[in-house]
Specification:
Layout (H helix, E strand, L loop, with lengths): L4 E3 L8 H16 L7 E4 L1 H10 L6 H16 L12 E7 L9 E5 L5 H5 L3 H21 L5 H14 L10 H19 L7 H14 L4 H10 L7 E7 L10 E8 L6 E9 L3 H6 L5 E2 L3 H4 L1 H18 L3 E8 L2 E9 L4 H13 L5 H5 L4 H7 L3 E2 L9 E2 L1 E4 L2 E7 L2 H9 L4 E5 L7 H6 L2 E4 L7 H9 L2 E4 L4 E4 L4 E4 L2 E4 L3 E5 L4 E4 L4 E2 L2 H7 L10 H17 L3 E5 L3 H9 L5 E4 L10 H9 L3 H25 L4 E5 L12 H13 L6 H13 L11 H6 L3 H18 L5 E6 L5 H22 L7 E5 L2 H5 L1 H4 L5 E4 L1 H9 L6 H12 L15 H15 L4 E4 L7 H9 L4 E4 L4 H15 L3 H4 L1 H5 L1 H4 L20 H4 L1
Parallel strand pairs: 14-15, 15-16, 16-17, 24-25, 24-31, 25-26, 26-27, 27-28, 28-29, 29-30, 30-31
Antiparallel strand pairs: 1-2, 2-5, 3-4, 3-5, 6-7, 6-9, 7-8, 9-10, 11-23, 12-22, 13-17, 14-21, 18-19, 19-20, 21-22
Helix pairs in contact: 5-7, 6-7, 13-15, 13-20, 15-35, 20-35, 21-23, 22-23, 23-27, 24-25, 27-28, 34-35
Bound molecules: phosphoenolpyruvate and magnesium ion.
Length: about 950
């Protein structure tokens, strides 16, 4: 018989696949001897059966009954018994934490009789009815499908009658009235009574939690965080303990270090006389956890002790939920806590300093997406002026956007391209789409552990919460802050690092981490140290661990210099197309339009010195390091004016009676002659070099002469020549012959022997499939995974993303754009074949990748796995690639840091969306630069 239910005492933290994160960690706390209310966990496997077959396994209900009996035996009371009943909570808990995205039902077991038993003494009467009304509300909405806002409306109505801002001052009579009103609402809306049988309540609550795995917000969250849809959730059933018993009770959330900055200390929120969900929802403002030291010194001391043992045990920042019931501390949950990028780096580095983890393990605790975040600009504090509101700095960073007051508006404006800031009193899970769409979230209620703060941190969004001076009026679409009224659409700046809100768009300045890279990666000092030192330390570790080299895609001396400062070990792709633009465009036009060989040669001769000086500049910046220069790739007509524009201009001239400019006439003829329906599949790449006489020779001569010039200047130039878009080895051979001829000529003319390795891009499926033959004539391969993705999928890379990729993502055709993260199954298979067959022909074949995937964290791991020598990416992504290459080396070696609990808990961050590049669109860069892009 399959086991679908485990008592807490039967599990451990390694069983999170089966017991979910929450269940596994509760079990671990029990093993550690911490005070955990008894309970059991229903496995993810049971949930998966429910989700795939529509029904739970038949063994499940009897197994739940048996485990419940064990808890009842230990407690000496039964679920929902009329006199002093046992009550349980029913909570979701997937392997990867999905805060607030699924359902929870508390106080299961209360009914019209047991509520009287629970409240049998006068001091417990209010508490009992408060618990019952909470159950009817939660159960009614979660299990019976009644709109949640209807319950809230009833509650608000009664609160208004009593002129109280929240429910804490309602008396027993009010609560009885509210409970009855809730039950009426349930009967009316769900068409049946609120169930009185505690066993039915428990069973239906479990099924509702299973079903919430496929709720809208859970699905949206999984898509964003790239959590597989088929994991399913476990369900923990746990004896209820009560923080709402009165002033000697309460609930709180604690972190063993600050999840925003990583600083050690006591962090968290506490809410006296409240249940856990009141803390997280942000409905009532919490007090800082330190205040518990005064409110209940004994519990505080115990909590600190447990926090220390948990951190030592998990060797990481732990996030803890606890409840104090009449002065007795209970641990309700722990997990390795989510943290900001800055905190991730500083905690990993601190723990390594403290000897808790090894430096290699520290590398497993951070990721490239986090590093990219730290490279984004921050506000210029000198230009910010005074803040209009101040709150808790819950998730750092700087964001500017127009104020919006609900999720739908945030999404609507964001889709239209506007940057927005979502302003709410507090957020709930229903606000998730708006939070995803917004640049920042600002709330007037809630602490560092409120829903807004936790979710924003998880997503790397800027968040200021608990800004009490901000009064949100959703109906009038405005908020007030002191005397100021800010209406929807007004631009504000949110400083999540300092908890401040400013009017207008505050100017940005470079982040400390970016300044560190721009300074060449020198160890930091001064104020920047706290943020930068951990990055420096961990990157050094990554550099020591990695096997993959990291080069940059750069085609100007300026970019080459930056790439080198950022740690690039050469240039993996120097695109030469921009060198045909700007003031050179007339020369290129002359080359294209030349009617005789002499005219063409003249144009090429004029281009030559300019190209040479480009290469000299780049080789100088990259002195001593390899520079892979790619021969011209785009179709020539891209260098000519637009056909329609020309035609319109000429038609206008004609209409005005002026004769068209003869140059326009010949340009239009050339553009028309060269027009292609599918230019990406047309006359470009090596094909161009083979049909335009003199083009390859001019480029190769420029390279060779630049090498000579650099050698004469005492440099150590290492130019390599790369041929684009090769399909067949014959194409490469023809170009190579030409290259050899020109190199020999320049060597003879100058007396300096010029040797440049010639290699090819592998960016067409045919090239990948015939790589064994191609390697016979190529010294190196560089995978052009932008084109390889385009041609393998048959996706036009310039068009498909805006056309239908969002539909494909929604429908689950793929979880991430294949232009962003390498498609291992298809494109990746071609890469594997080409690597194996290329190396079989030429064992010392050097192989790299220069498509945009070279800077994408997940793809870097793949390139490490398949044995590439280097990845090449835009200069801004070089640090991310260095970090991920180091992490890839460790995870491939199955180092302890990647097998252990810590890293496992970081799995969700590890697979997060490919980081955008500060100042540039990350995933857009696979689009081949068009001439006008250089404008
Ligand atoms: C590629 O195709 O991956 C590549 C690097 O070349 P480009 O983007 O310039 O076509
Ligand atoms: Mg290409």
């Amino acid at each position: 018989m399959n086991t679908y239910v485990y008592d807490f005492a039967e599990g451990s933290r390694g069983m999170d696949d089966l017991l979910g994160n929450k269940g596994a960690n509760l079990a671990e706390m029990v093993r550690m001897g911490l005070p955990v209310p008894p309970g059991f966990t229903i496995t993810t496997e049971a949930c998966r059966t429910f989700l795939t077959t529509g029904a739970p396994p038949v063994e499940l209900r009897p197994q739940i009954r048996d485990h419940l009996a064990v808890i009842e035996g230990a407690a000496g009371k039964r679920l929902g018994q009329a006199d002093d009943p046992l009550l349980v909570s029913v909570r979701s808990g997937a392997r990867v934490s999905m805060p607030g995205m699924m359902e929870t039902v508390l106080d299961v077991g209360l009914n019209d009789y047991s509520v009287l038993g629970l409240g049998k003494t006068p001091d417990r009467e209010r508490f009992a009815w408060d618990s019952y009304r909470r159950l009817v509300q939660m159960y009614g909405s979660t299990v019976m499908g009644v709109e949640g806002s209807l319950f809230a409306e009833v509650l608000t109505r009664v609160e208004r009658q009593h002129h109280t801002p929240d429910d804490s001052r309602l008396d027993v009579c009010d609560l009885i009235r509210i409970t009855e009103a809730f039950k009426d609402l349930v009967r009316e809306r769900a068409g049946r009574e609120f169930p009185q049988d505690p066993a039915d309540q428990l069973w239906e609550a479990v099924l509702a939690v299973f079903a919430s795995w496929n709720g809208d917000r859970a699905r949206l969250y999984r898509r964003r965080e790239r959590i597989p849809d088929d994991l399913g959730t476990a369900v923990t059933v746990q004896t209820m303990v009560f923080g709402n018993f009165g002033p000697d009770s309460g609930s709180g959330v604690a972190f063993t270090r600050d999840p925003a900055t990583g600083r050690p200390g006591v962090y968290g929120d506490y809410l006296p006389s409240a249940q856990g969900e009141d803390v997280v929802s942000g409905v009532r403002n919490t007090v800082p956890l330190q205040e518990l030291a005064t409110l209940d010194p004994a519990s505080f001391a115990q909590l600190r002790e447990h926090m220390a043992s948990l951190e030592a045990h998990y060797r990481d920042l732990c996030d803890i939920e606890f409840t104090i019931e009449r002065g007795r501390l209970w641990m309700l949950q722990t997990r390795v806590g989510k943290r900001t990028a800055q905190a991730a780096f500083s905690i990993a580095s601190q723990l390594a300093d403290e000897g808790v983890i090894t430096p290699r393990q520290a590398l497993g605790r951070v990721d490239g997406a986090g590093l990219a975040q730290l490279m984004f600009p921050r506000f210029d504090t000198t230009a910010a002026g005074s803040a209009v509101a101040r709150g808790i700095p819950a998730s750092p960073g700087a964001a500017v956007g127009a104020v919006v007051f609900d999720s739908a508006e945030a999404v609507r404006r964001a889709v239209a391209g506007e940057k927005v800031v979502l302003v709410r009193s507090e957020t709930t899970a229903d606000d998730l789409p708006g939070m995803v769409a917004a640049q920042a979230v600002l709330t007037s209620h809630g602490g560092k552990t409120s829903h807004a703060a936790v979710v924003a941190r998880g997503m790397g969004k800027v968040c200021v919460c608990g800004a009490e001076g901000v009064v949100v009026d959703v109906r009038s679409r405005c908020f007030t802050a002191g005397d100021l009224t800010v209406s929807e659409g007004t631009v504000i700046s949110v400083d999540g690092s300092r908890g401040l809100v400013h009017m207008g768009a505050v100017p940005m300045v470079e982040s400390d981490v970016m300044r560190y890279f721009e300074g060449g990666g020198q160890p930091p000092d001064g104020a920047a140290q706290e943020c930068v030192r951990p990055v420096h330390r961990i990157l050094q570790q990554a550099d020591a661990a990695r096997r993959l080299e990291v080069r940059a895609n750069a085609d100007t001396p300026h970019d080459a210099a930056r790439a080198r400062r950022f740690g690039a070990q050469g240039i993996g792709l120097c695109r030469t197309e921009h060198m045909f633009l700007g003031d050179r465009r007339p020369l290129v036009e002359a080359m294209i339009l030349a009617e005789s060989a002499a005219d063409r040669d003249a144009a090429l001769d004029a281009l030559l010195p300019r190209q040479r000086s480009d290469f000299i500049g780049i080789l100088e910046e990259m002195d001593g390091l390899p520079v892979t220069i790619r021969l011209l790739d785009p179709p020539l007509h891209e260098f000519l004016p637009d056909r329609t524009e020309l035609a319109v201009r000429m038609a206008r001239d004609e209409a005005l009676g002026t004769s068209p400019d003869p140059r326009d006439t010949s340009l239009l003829a050339a553009v028309t002659r060269m027009h292609e329906e599918n230019p990406m599949l047309g006359l470009r790449g090596v094909r161009l070099g083979l049909v335009v006489p003199g083009l390859v020779a001019m480029q190769v001569r420029a390279i060779a002469e630049a090498v000579v010039a650099r050698r004469r200047a005492g440099g150590a130039p290492r130019a390599e020549i790369m041929v684009p878009l090769v399909d067949a080895v014959e194409e490469l051979r023809l170009v190579k012959d030409e290259v050899d001829r020109v190199l020999a000529a320049v060597s003879t003319e100058t007396g300096v022997a010029v040797e440049c390795p010639v290699g090819t891009m592998i960016e067409l499926p045919r090239a990948a499939l015939t790589a064994g033959r191609i390697a016979g004539d190529a010294r190196f391969f560089s995978f052009g995974t932008n084109d390889l993705t385009q041609t393998t999928w048959g996706f036009s890379r310039d068009d498909v993303e805006s056309a239908f990729f969002s539909a494909y993502l929604d429908k689950g055709v793929f979880a991430v754009s294949p232009f962003e993260t390498i498609d291992r199954e298809g494109v990746g298979r071609l890469v594997r074949i080409a690597v194996a067959e290329g190396r079989a022909t030429r064992p010392d074949l050097e192989i790299g990748v220069c498509g945009e995937h070279g800077g994408d964290p997940s793809s870097v791991h793949f390139f490490h796995e398949v044995g590439l020598d280097y990845v090449s990416c835009s200069p801004f992504r070089v640090p991310v690639a260095r970090l991920e290459a180091g992490r890839a080396a460790l995870s491939a070696a199955d180092d302890e840091s990647f097998g252990d609990f810590g890293d496992r808990m970081h799995a969700s961050t590890r697979t997060r969306l490919s980081p955008a590049i500060p100042g540039r669109g990350g995933a857009d860069d696979h689009r081949r630069p068009r001439p006008d892009a250089f404008g």
